[in-house]
Design brief:
SH3 type barrels; about 180 residues; Ribosomal Protein S8, Chain: A, domain 1; 12 strands; 2 domains; alpha+beta; about 30% strand; 5-stranded mixed beta sheet
Length: about 180
């Protein structure tokens, strides 16, 4: 990531953002909105592209280069709920024995699970899927929906049933199983 003094940056796994004040090889110093100076590795930072809304390196863009350490041995965590597939995306359920160094790595892993589940549903002609992501800060929900919008044109999504999942689930409906309809 190319950075210059004065650029706006955001820390991947923390709620910190600020303006770059100094650059030293892989270290980036920036002044946060609270007036304090912080130092992080370049790999721990994101750079805004469009008025602070989109970031140059975020999960939906980094996903394509992510390689799972368990590509063929991972069993899909599918349960059944009212004739729908139910997938719990909480990381402690998906990968209880894995230790992710950064939260961003866990998010990429969760997106990989989402992709595998969607592809399996298309293959098996399963029309409805519910992903339980929890409420939290909404990052997984946002990234999952962005990923679906940009990779699957034939899938509609909406909030899951509040009575069953509160605000912590997204339900998908696959409208057409013709592979040509999916980008």
């Amino acid at each position: 990531m190319n950075l210059t003094i004065g650029d706006l940056v955001m820390v991947v796994d923390e709620n910190l953002r600020g303006t770059v004040t100094r650059l030293e090889e892989e270290k980036v110093f920036f002044e946060c909105e609270d007036g304090f100076e912080y130092c992080y590795q370049r790999s721990q930072l994101l750079k805004p592209v469009d008025d602070g809304i989109e970031f140059e390196l975020s999960a939906h863009k980094a996903y394509d280069s992510f390689v799972s350490t368990e590509p063929n041995t991972f069993e899909l965590p599918i349960q059944h709920h009212k004739n729908k597939w139910l997938i719990d995306l909480h990381i402690e359920t998906l990968a209880p024995k894995r230790n992710f160094v950064l939260q961003h790595e866990a998010l990429l892993f969760q997106l990989e699970v989402i992709k595998k589940c969607i592809e399996a549903a298309i293959h098996k002609r399963q029309r409805k899927i519910i992903f339980v992501h929890g409420v939290g800060k909404g990052r997984l929900r946002h990234e999952m929906r962005y990923f679906i919008d940009h990779h699957y044109s034939g899938i509609e999504y909406f909030d899951g049933d509040y009575r069953d999942f509160g605000f912590g689930a997204t339900e998908l409906i696959i409208h057409d199983f013709n592979q040509d309809d999916f980008s």
